[in-house]
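pipeline/complex-builder :: batch 7 item 3
reading input block
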Amino acid sequence: MNMKKIISACMALLVVSLTACNDFLDEPMKGNLNTESIYSSPEEAQLAVNGIYNASTYFINLWRFGDVASDDAVKGGNEGDMSDLNYIIDFTASADNGVLSEFWQNTYEVVSCANNVIGNVPGMASASQTQKDNFVAQAKFFRALAYFTLVNIYGEVPLKLLPQNSPETINVPLSSVESIYAQIEKDLTDAAPSLEINPVEQGRVTRGAAYGLLAKVYLYQKKYSDALNAISQVESLNIYDLEPNYADLFKLGSENSKEVVFAIRFLSGQNPGLGNLLNQYLAPLEEMGYYFDAPTQNWVNCFTELTEDGETDPRLDASIGRDGMPWLNDNLFQASWSPATGYLVKKHNQPLDEVPAGRKGDGGLPYIYLRYADILLMKAEAYNELHQPVLAKAPLDSVRSRVGLAETTATSESAMRDAIRLERRKELGFEFHRFFDLMRYGREAAQAALPSLPWGETRYYYPIPQAEIDANQAI
Amino acid sequence: MYKKIFLPLLCLMTIGMAAAQQKAPVTGNVSDAASGEPLIGVSIRVDGTSTGTSSDIDGNYSISAPGNATLIFSYMGYEPVRLNIDNRSTIDVKMNVQAELMEEVVVVGYTSMKKRDVLGAVSKLEGDAITALPVSSAAQAMQGRIAGVSVSNATGAPGAGVSVRVRGVGSISSDNEPLYIVDGIPIEDAMNLISPNDIENITVLKDASSAAVYGSRANNGVVLITTKSGSKGKARISYNGQFGFQTHGRLIPMANAAQYRDIYNESVANDNAMGGIQRTPLTEEYMHDLADVNYLDAIFHTAPIFVQELSVSGGSEKVNYLLSGSYYGQDGIINNSGYDRISVRSNITADVKDWLSVGLNLSAAQANTQYVSSSGDGYGNSEGGSVVRYAMFRNPNIPIRDANGNFVDLPSVYFGNSIYDTFFGDSYNPVALADNTDRNRRDMLFFGKVNLTFKLPYNIKWTNNFGVDYKGTDYKVFNRSWGDDNRINNPNGISVEQGRYLNWTFNSVIDYRQSFGEDHNLAALLGFEAIRNNEYFTNESDQNFPVWDKDLLYVGNGLGEKTATESEYTSTLASFFAQVSYDYKSRYYVSGTLRYDGSSRFVGNNRWGLFYSASAGWNLDQEAFLRDVNWLNKLKLRVGYGAIGNQNVGNYAYSDYYSSNYNYPFSGTSYYGYVQTKLGNPDLKWETSRQFNAGIDFEVLRGELGMSIDYYNKITDDMLVEASYPPSLGNAEPNWINSGSVLNEGVDLEIYYRKQWNDASFNVSLNAGWLHNEVLKLEAPILSGRVDNGIYATKTEVGYPIGSFYMYEMEGIFQNEAEILTSAYQGADIEPGDVKFVDQNGDGIINDEDRVHLGSAIPVATLGLNIGGTYKGWDLSLFFQGAFGQKIYNQILTDSEGFYRGFNVTERYYENHWTGEGSTNEFPRASWKSKSNNARVSSRFLEDGSYLRLKNVQLGYTFNTKKWGIEMLRLYVAATNLWTITGYSGFDPEMTVSANSTSEGDRASGIDWGTYPTAITYTFGINLTF
């Protein structure tokens, strides 16, 4: 062997190696679905649609604003726990508030899951047009719900409508409140016709849910005739009615009630868990709960009007636990269970034997976001604000009569307005709407209920998380 | 042939020696062969006996010995001299400076070279320094031994991971561990596989010029481990045994039961006065039946440690062999934790032909680890909150066990009423938690390497290595239901994770060395390497086991739902490399390296990366003007520059992916759902770090005193980081991007002094490293180290180190109302006794804009100090290790001094908290209501983490055993972690890595959540060779 031979042998080895190398270095991803593969068949795309529903379960945390920031409830719980909620309550939250950033991110998770479906499903070759439309419609409903929540807490937010897979789609500037609302209306209007009225898989978003949310969206913008139109779309489906017994709405299985327009569902004893954490968050320490969201005396004081039979309005004790009144486990509620106010929310609590032992947070109750009573009260409000208090009376009274209250005595537009607002507060207490209602009623009503509420040019919005401002290059 | 004659002769001589006991005096003078100077203190021994003396100040000596005996003259830095007396009475000896000492061989990239020829920053650690400590992993033994190498244990729990950082932290997101190469093959879990006793030496390549030949993964330095092998000569059997026990160190003094009641009632009074929620004080009538438990004391116990190592080695002219086996067993100082390992190894080499030698290295090990939750509060990891943490929190008034010997869980159940729930708090019983933990991991490791080396003409050596590295893991957890009503872990369940790592490496290197004439030396290296890593995992779980018999706790026997998942990852690397070195008269050196690397983790045009280095050296001591300077043995200047790569991103980082288990119930049934959980980036490319290194080595006084200083400047560019996207991304993990750059700049210093006398010796060596770490460029700051929802303790941003602590600065305590009114506004409910923060921007209000950078967990300086001495058979060594200038965020104090719920407080807080104007400016008043002010993430809980620790002290005696036919017998006693000087108030300044932030790596180190502390270990050991 001489040097030349060695060198040429080496060169040959090198050339052979180099060509072999690129094959050797190709390693396709194993075992995981990605955007390319999950939208390749309708069965798999369905999985991505279901993922949005999973993300939407975060909306049970709306109590942190809907109740706690309103005059209905205080934070409650152990003093040091979730202390950032204290700044939500007194409207001094700074941009680094943990509650604000957690809510922001998890709500945008719903937006992201929805955008991935909306952006990728239409291009699928393997699914029928009807199927694709239905997938996209479900996603658009959730996107609308997420933006509706965001715009009412934070005001101007980045309006992200595309899958976030590039710097341009991730760094999106703030949009005006009007344009966000316009998009919400568009999503719901687009979605409604493609949604099923009565899906076989109960719990999927329905056409009624889309029109019902649309009505609410219009009402929040004071577009009262549009709201009435949407409500008539809901009514024309002819499947919704009030549940005869108010208390039954907060028992296991109530998601199937004909009163439910849209509910987020839970199921105990699953692996991976699908339980409702409210069952623990709002429960007394005696039941291994965290006793948050304690109802105020101010809310209890709303219940001065007795039923026609002279009884206490049944909604009071269906909604909260009061000292000496029956609680859920054949026991009586004790005021000491709630150090903050002496009251705890009953609506989202279940008897202990309905959940697996030791898994209090694995609750099975739904969170009913929109029910027919709300639709009726919206209808009454819309008529009244269109200066037709006469037409407002019937829907209002049907809500009242269910719980045994006499017909309303209000006739003037302003008396009717007060009556409707009070009814909403009692009917929908601890269903996380009160704060948002107060804010849309306007400065006068909101500051009357919440004296510490600052009011900006339009209204009070919580600050956008600092992390968003720091990292979003378009803001 | 020579051997055949020589051996019988040697035997005859020995017999003759034994017969001739007649002794006669021998005198003479010892001097330096070159200068003729007398040598003082030269050791002179009669071979085969314990008789010895040393030369005096004039180099003269006198010794009695039989006329046929052999004298051995030895002196540090000189060639030993053996002389037969041949019945002479006067023998003068001239000794030569030892050449070998200079010619120490160091293993470097794919080859080895003489120490004097090394141009890069390379440090070598000998095996005996590694075996001195009773530690499970050689990485732990590296702590404090090498300048610029920082070693820390994740926790003090047996079998816990060790993190090694060579010259700082180069990368923000990706792994900063060095590359481990064992006998030429990169190994995944090297430190678990190899018993420290099997290690011949460890070489750490610290700078670019030495590491560049490993281009692709050498960004964080390279640790080369050479295992022991046999050598020609008599077979040696060597045994090491260590027997010891471990105890806990200093415990944090906590309030006792009465003190806790006291401060609880004080907080009730303070809080009730503020209005709002009213709590009931604990009155006398409820104070009976209370216990007084020191929970910290209760969770620790003394635990044994046991090490057994046996090796046999030897060799003939053509074949060398080594066989070894070892056992390491350690119980933890907390119940249900422990680690044991059995390992076996064989290294065989054979010269089968003149032109071919072959080698086979095989090793196998099995390690069992038993875990208790040892760090963090349970967020973001599967282990749950640390036992130590709960031991600090648990109210001392609650007994550990009830009258029936059962663990007390909820105090309300135990005491039969719920009135004082807020007093008792809701912390777990830590003793019960440890007792109910059943979490086991078994690692099976196998490593095999075949080596074929061809000796070709023209001084060409062609080396081929093929290595297989296998690791199988079984991780099985039984979550036992316990507590009142079995409330914890209900339903009970098993989860099993099985992993398999199968990596193979092939490398082929042509090594050419040639001298041209007398002055020109050339060495060249050309090589190819291919690596394939495959990881495969399955996870199974089952629930609701009716019988908790250990023999029946297997997946399938539960009554609940079963789940199974499977995953696999593969990555491949291919590399070509070349290196050329040249020196002139061993005086002037230059060297250059090129490496071309391809990685499967990058796609398209970004797949291949080219890395390089160049270096030069100058041995000044060989120059004419220095050659005659007697006191100077060595003086060398080195300089190098190079670029090396890093591909340490997750596999398939180019693609996004969706994950399962995002289900939802429709019609009362759970439906499967998938969510995008990670974004992808097909444009990802190699991270590159460019490092400049300059060093100087010198040695004086015949090698008695030496020093090396290296300066380095390393800039990592195109850093592989997980992008920092706004939270409006949702919950998907961001993709990896190439962004930003980080500077690591520092000085490494090594100094040694050694001195030998006739029957005594002394040595001291010191290594120290100074490091400056700074982020030079980053797209957006990264908040890390979550301490509560949305609240972080560190911020990584330009101008500060990685993981810099970012928080409010405590100014003191508000002493009175007037001070509150005249200070910046902190909130409506501030009262005297609350913490006052610094208004950094002077805008009169304390808000998030007042947070500032207050240091980082990266030590400014690290130190190792070894002091050793021998006298006759005795040896004593002291090893100190320290780190200075780093900060620790003592998160656990947020609870145990933040005091806002029924959790115990530290004794110092109880004794020193604010009780009125002028009482203290350090600890605020007892008030749960003011927690959101007083327990803010602030400098109140940020402490200096500097420490100096007596890592090991060892006293041994070596017996004169020649007459027993034993080559060596040494007995010793040792203590590890015996003594620590630190101002840190937590358990252990070393144990600050939390399971909470494993995914955040170096961005969130130095946050102490109440971590398993390091044990103090006392051992008795035996070294025996025959």
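note: The longest strand of chain A covers residues 260-264.
queue -> next item
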